[in-house]
Known about the structure:
single chain, mainly alpha
Amino acid sequence: MSNFKKEDIGKPMMSLVEPEFIKGTARVLTMGAVKYEVDNWKKCEDRKRYKDALLRHIYDYSSGNKTDDESGESHLYHAACNLMFLDAFDKEGK
């Protein structure tokens, strides 16, 4: 065993991300895919709509309303989806 090597220094420690957060965000994305269609969010031309949605979920959460009425999921999971959308738009230069 003294010869073991693994080149993972400096790589992200994925085990630090809470699995339930990822699963909750994926559940919200799945609901959106069923309600609209897969990757419908990518068709949005006005990124401000996702910024507004992000802030609505953050404000609801901050006001003590932890769960979205329609989905039954945490407002934080919805906020994470909107953050992902905005990040993707930033990378595309929208």
